[in-house]
Design brief:
Shape: globular
Bound molecules: zinc ion
CATH superfamily of the largest domain: Zn peptidases
Radius of gyration: 24 Å
Number of strands: 20
CATH class of the largest domain: Alpha Beta
CATH architecture of the largest domain: 3-Layer(aba) Sandwich
Distance between the termini: 58 Å
Strand content: 25-35%
Largest sheet: 8 strands, mixed
Number of domains: 2
Length: about 525
């Protein structure tokens, strides 16, 4: 093939891609306009934003190519490094921007990680990250980058953004994939988190402004900002408290000072009987997995899904204000924040073989007054709702914490996935005879993962296992793998390997349930190896 025909084939392929995507991009005709009394509640901020989405003639939001051009322009600044950390399903490079003094990451300083646009139809966070990267890398902010490292993924799901849909190109919700890592996008995020070990993580989203709220209550959502820290079992209490007592209040104060309103994150469905639920308590979202990485992990959402470009400047502003408050708090805490996370790593590691782990937990049902904006009048309206709180975990099942887990030589996929999360997995060259607990699978049924709102529609669903434990001494053959809990990421290990945790590798069929008479694939190791 000569160069000219190669070029034309490439051009033809690009044109085809363009035609395909032209049907699926952001479509202003599908936007639900807010009634004027509702929209009047959300006036624009005094700040002017200038990302491509704000160019009057541009119909859509900042395109992938426009974003990359902006990031490449930033690279000429001395404190900026632009990298590629993976490739999306459709072949788009996943950009990562490091902001640090001299563009060199320094582990002695605290690190803030920003993740935007895991969901492709939530554009404001992506616009805001461009604003923040430009602002923080400007010469007048050089002092900030002497105090902190910033790691940013401005568009975690670029295919979803190009198609203007929530999930990735293969219809997987990236934000339920952070333990299983079935998508290249989630794998890239995991690798990045394992590499930089950020002490604070901000997961930036948007929530539904009208839609189901209008259907059920004849009202629109009221708050500019919804917030929630990690809420799942087995979190380090020191890190959790730092989020609740320091970082969340810092964001709340800044948001209020900017004239914006905030509340706990909550969502619901169009089903009139569905509760209004806070963000889930399962170890599968970026927020909860971040907590199990011993980071202060915060979900920050703005009121933006379904309303196109309405209130866009205000939505971007809310993300900018929140991230600005957070980075200043990270800088103020300085090396003490690094110490806090290191202490959590040590404490978590030291718990191997001791105490109990949470295997299953649920949200706590409450009644709560929800504040909405009336669709007709635009005034506040209170609705008493069935609320599912994630602030108090209803622990459904606990189990003694083993020293570690043994995986059979066949379980390479599980081993690779754990390693991609940053978990240390040791190959065992020789056989070991040790005290173990075997899983006895008493009941197996097909099911779906649940979150606060109801079932998560995973293709293929999950295996819901009921297990009991059988204590014994067992000869573990050579060639298997040992995953010790004496490591900082042990919370990810127990979430992945206890079979009856709904996000586990057995539930997801990454590890097969042994047939009667088959040997064990996974056992709990009850003594130190
Ligand atoms: Zn989202």
């Amino acid at each position: 093939m000569n160069t000219t025909s190669g070029f034309f084939r490439l051009a033809a392929a690009s044109a085809c891609l363009f035609v395909l995507q032209a049907h699926a991009q952001f479509d202003p005709a599908k936007v639900r306009l807010q009634p004027p009394p509702v929209e009047a509640r959300f006036p624009p901020p005094a700040v002017i934003y200038d990302t491509p989405a704000f160019d009057a003639p541009q119909v859509g939001f900042t395109s992938y190519e426009q974003m990359m051009a902006r990031l490449q322009a930033l690279q000429t600044r001395p404190n900026v490094r632009l990298e590629t950390v993976g490739t999306s399903e459709q072949g788009r490079a996943l950009p990562l921007v490091l902001l640090a003094h001299g563009a060199r990451f320094d582990a002695a300083k605290p690190t803030l990680m920003l993740v935007a646009q895991q969901h492709g139809n939530e554009p404001a966070p992506g616009e805001a990250v461009l604003v923040l990267l430009e602002r923080w890398s400007a010469p007048e902010r050089a002092q900030l980058l002497r105090q902190v490292n910033v790691v940013a993924l401005p568009r975690a799901n670029p295919d979803g953004a190009a198609l203007f849909k929530r999930a990735n190109a293969h219809d997987v919700d990236l934000n339920r994939d952070h333990l299983l890592l079935r998508t290249p996008e989630a794998r890239a995020l995991a690798t990045t988190a394992a590499r930089f070990r950020p002490q604070v993580v901000l997961d930036m989203h948007e929530f539904t402004a009208g839609d189901r709220w209008v259907t059920r209550y004849g009202a629109w959502s009221k708050h500019d900002v919804l917030l929630q820290a990690a809420t799942t079992g087995n979190l380090d209490s020191g890190v959790y408290q730092a989020g609740m007592d320091d970082f969340l209040p810092a964001i709340r104060q800044a948001v209020a000072a900017a004239g914006l309103s905030e509340s706990w994150y909550h969502t619901t469905t169009a089903d009139p009987k569905a509760p209004v639920a806070m963000g889930g308590v399962q170890p599968d979202t970026w927020r909860n997995i971040g907590g199990l990485r011993n980071a202060v992990s915060i979900l920050h959402e703005t009121r933006g899904v379904g309303i196109g470009k309405q209130n866009l400047a205000r939505r971007v502003h809310a993300h900018v204000v929140a991230a600005e408050a957070l980075v200043q708090r990270v800088a103020a805490r300085g090396p003490s924040l690094v110490d806090l996370a290191r202490r959590a790593d040590r404490d978590v590691s030291a718990r191997a073989c001791q105490g109990d782990i949470v295997v299953a937990a649920q949200q706590t049902p409450e009644r709560r007054e929800l504040s909405l904006v009336d669709a007709q009048t635009g005034v506040d309206r209170a609705e008493l709702v069935d609320w599912r709180s994630s602030l108090t975990l209803k622990v459904a099942q606990t189990r003694p914490r083993p020293c570690g887990y043994w995986l059979a030589p066949t379980e390479l996929r599980a081993v690779q996935t754990l390693r991609a999360l940053g978990v240390q997995v040791k190959p065992l060259a020789s056989q070991h005879t040790v005290a173990v607990e075997r899983y006895v699978f008493e009941n197996i049924e097909a099911s779906q993962r649940q979150d606060g709102r109801g079932a998560i529609q995973d293709a293929g669903g999950i295996v819901k296992a009921k297990v009991s434990l059988q204590a014994t001494r067992q000869r573990l053959p050579a060639g298997g793998w040992y995953v010790s809990l004496a490591q900082p990421l042990s919370g990810l290990v127990t979430a992945a390997l206890e079979p009856d945790s709904q996000s586990s590798y057995v539930a997801a069929r990454l590890i097969a349930v042994p047939q009667p008479g088959e040997s064990d694939r996974l056992v709990r190791v009850m003594q130190r190896l």
